[in-house]
């Protein structure tokens, strides 16, 4: 395992925040990396919820503003989930691939 650390900050604490925490933790077990990613801080708008998530995921620090996360000295690589596009009516669009897209990608 690499001795050098890459200090990561995760914006968001929901499903994707959990997935990113897991991914960073297991990545060095799956392949040799030049650095070992270490999640140092997680951000979310709801202080109680982000603190609960950080405790559950083993993240030592939290902030409630993503701008605070990206300016911290202990974050070298901020991570966020991709934004979901919105429809013309302002609703969040589905990001589930259609059956035709899925079938064509199998060919």
Please describe the structure with a list of short key phrases separated by commas or semicolons.
globular, 4 helices, Rossmann fold, alpha/beta, four-stranded parallel beta sheet
Assigned CATH class: Alpha Beta
Mean pLDDT: 81
**CATH-level-2 architecture:** 3-Layer(aba) Sandwich
Major sheet details: 4 strands, parallel
Structural class: alpha/beta
Spans with pLDDT under 50 lasting ≥5 residues? 93-107
CATH fold topology: Rossmann fold
Share of helix, binned? 25-40%
Which percent band covers the strand fraction? 15-25%
Task: Count every helix, treating DSSP H or I runs of 4 or more residues as helices.
Answer: 4
Domain module count: 1
The CATH superfamily bears the name NAD(P)-binding Rossmann-like Domain
Order of helices and strands: EHEHEHEH
What integer value in Å does the Rg equal?
A: 17 Å
Q: How many strands appear in the DSSP assignment?
A: 4
Describe this structure in words.
By secondary structure, the protein is of the alpha/beta class. It has a single domain (5-82), classed as NAD(P)-binding Rossmann-like Domain (Rossmann fold, 3-Layer(aba) Sandwich). The chain contains 4 helices and 4 strands, in the order βαβαβαβα. The chain has helices spanning 15-30, 47-57, 66-70, 99-105, and strands spanning 5-11, 36-43, 61-63, 77-80. Strands 3-2-1-4 form a 4-stranded parallel β-sheet. The protein starts with a strand and ends with a helix. Residues 93-107 have low confidence and may be disordered.
């Amino acid at each position: 395992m690499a001795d050098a650390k890459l200090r990561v900050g995760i914006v968001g604490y929901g499903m994707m925040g959990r997935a990113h925490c897991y991914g960073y933790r297991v990545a060095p077990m799956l392949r040799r990396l030049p650095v070992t990613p270490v999640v140092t801080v997680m951000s979310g708008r709801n202080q109680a919820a982000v603190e609960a998530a950080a405790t559950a995921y083993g993240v030592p620090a939290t902030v409630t503003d993503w701008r605070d996360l990206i300016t911290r000295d202990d974050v070298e690589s901020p991570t966020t989930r991709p934004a979901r596009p919105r429809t013309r009516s302002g609703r969040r669009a589905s990001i589930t691939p259609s059956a035709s897209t899925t079938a064509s990608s199998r060919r």
